[in-house]
């Protein structure tokens, strides 16, 4: 289903000194006018996000969460930089207004960007739409990720945004460490998946901007048209291997419906009946957009994306146990760790069998 993101009063752990914040914004964001109000968006798992409403404009504020954070996580300065760089590139992004490094204002670094009116689909089936609209949005999703991967990151001033080589190996190492740091239960499928991926990294080295969480639920769709108006949530973006990003976007083709927040899919759904296209059709759109002749080692990249998603989900679960997850549903994510790691292990074994 789609919805405007739900707004709540800030959770206890995420309350801000609004008087100090609004005074700061009046001095640093052109046109910021009082009186102003602040509410928290419910639904994000990582960086607490707020709506600020003034008489003349609405803004979105993103900040780091409180408490102890895992190494290299929640680097919101990167979110701000990448969206600012992509403005006007052909990849739809929100306009950035200001980045604040002074933690005395609200306790953490934060940035402010424009608020866009639109729809966010948490249900990959987009059940309230007509079949033609579903297919149009799905096609836009893969055309947009193709546009991102085709963008010249050096021209955009992002040559130092990440390391241009060994992305997969570095990601396996990084997320394995973060998974171990937040692991709450020994999961054989996850252990097996980590071992397989580490030993079977493809030789192909291709580098592009990668979003890191590119999926339907992170797209802002026009209020009435089947059109993406902004790609959201750039926390995990870097320079890396585009097929890893693409495989993550394709996870829905391999996940069961109603699998849980962020990971629901349509593995057993008759896609054509719902106006949706197959993974093969979407990969063809992507290849045409990026000038790629084809895709090799596809099951490896799918398995990698399942592994990485499992590690992220376990981190959300660990933060929920510690009481500082940005969403009250964080405790459900351990089940997602199990499901995605088991699915990933099954997929790479298809690769071995073939």
Structure description:
The protein is an alpha+beta fold and 354 residues long. It has two domains: 2-114, Phosphorylase Kinase, domain 1; 120-353, Aminoglycoside phosphotransferase (APH), C-terminal lobe (Aminoglycoside 3'-phosphotransferase, Chain: A, domain 2, Alpha-Beta Complex). 38% of the residues lie in helices and 13% in strands. It has helices at 18-28, 76-86, 131-150, 167-182, 188-199, 242-249, 279-290, 298-322, 333-353, and strands at residues 2-3, 6-8, 37-42, 49-53, 58-63, 96-100, 110-114, 120-121, 208-210, 219-221, 228-231, 238-240. It is globular and about 60 Å long.
Short description:
The chain is built from nine helices and twelve strands. It has helices spanning 18-28, 76-86, 131-150, 167-182, 188-199, 242-249, 279-290, 298-322, 333-353, and strands at residues 2-3, 6-8, 37-42, 49-53, 58-63, 96-100, 110-114, 120-121, 208-210, 219-221, 228-231, 238-240. 40% of the residues are buried.
Number of domains: 2
Order of helices and strands: EEHEEEHEEEHHHEEEEHHHH
Mean pLDDT: 90
What is the fold named in CATH at topology level of the largest domain? Aminoglycoside 3'-phosphotransferase, Chain: A, domain 2
Q: How many beta-strand segments? A: 12
Describe the biggest sheet? 6 strands, antiparallel
> Which runs of at least 5 residues are low in confidence (pLDDT < 50)?
none
Q: What general outline do the C-alpha atoms trace? A: globular
Write out the strand line-up for the largest beta sheet, numbering strands in chain order: 2-3-4-5-7-6
Radius of gyration: 20 Å
Looking at the chains present, what oligomeric state does this protein adopt?
single chain
Classify the beta-strand content into a percent band: 5-15%
CATH top level assignment of the largest domain: Alpha Beta
What class would the helix/strand composition place it in?
alpha+beta
How far from one another are the termini? 37 Å
Number of helices: 9
The CATH architecture of the largest domain can be given as Alpha-Beta Complex
* CATH superfamily descriptor of the largest domain: Aminoglycoside phosphotransferase (APH), C-terminal lobe
Helicity, as a percent range: 25-40%
């Amino acid at each position: 289903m789609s919805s405007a993101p739900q707004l709540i009063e800030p959770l206890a752990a995420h309350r801000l000194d609004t008087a100090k914040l609004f005074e700061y914004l009046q001095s640093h964001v052109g046109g910021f006018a009082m009186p102003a109000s602040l509410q928290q968006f419910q639904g994000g798992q990582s960086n607490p996000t707020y709506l600020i409403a003034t008489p003349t404009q609405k803004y979105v504020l993103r900040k780091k969460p409180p408490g102890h954070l895992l190494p290299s996580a929640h680097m919101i300065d990167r979110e701000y930089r990448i969206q600012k760089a992509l403005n006007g590139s052909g990849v739809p992004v929100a306009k950035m207004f200001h980045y604040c490094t002074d933690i005395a204002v609200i306790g953490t670094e934060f940035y402010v960007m424009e608020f866009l009116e639109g729809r966010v689909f948490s249900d990959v089936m987009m059940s309230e739409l007509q079949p033609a609209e579903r297919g149009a949005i799905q096609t836009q999703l893969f055309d947009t990720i193709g546009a991102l991967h085709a963008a010249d990151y050096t021209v955009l001033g992002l040559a130092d945004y990440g390391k241009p080589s060994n992305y997969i190996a570095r990601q396996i190492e990084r997320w394995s460490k973060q998974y171990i740091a937040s692991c709450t239960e020994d999961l054989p499928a996850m252990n097996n998946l980590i071992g397989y991926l580490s030993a079977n990294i493809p030789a192909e080295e291709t580098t592009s901007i990668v979003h890191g969480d590119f999926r339907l639920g992170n797209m802002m769709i026009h209020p009435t048209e089947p059109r993406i108006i902004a790609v959201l949530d750039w926390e995990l973006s870097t320079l890396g291997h585009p097929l890893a990003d693409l495989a993550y976007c394709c996870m829905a083709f391999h996940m069961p419906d109603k699998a849980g927040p962020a990971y629901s899919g349509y593995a057993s759904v008759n896609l054509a009946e719902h106006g949706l296209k197959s993974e093969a059709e979407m990969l063809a759109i992507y290849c045409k957009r990026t000038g790629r002749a084809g895709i090799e080692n596809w099951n490896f990249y799918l398995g990698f994306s399942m592994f990485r998603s499992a590690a992220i989900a376990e981190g959300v679960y660990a933060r929920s146990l510690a009481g500082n997850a940005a969403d009250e549903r964080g405790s459900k994510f351990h089940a997602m760790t199990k499901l995605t790691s088991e699915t990933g292990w099954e997929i790479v074994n298809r690769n071995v069998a073939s």
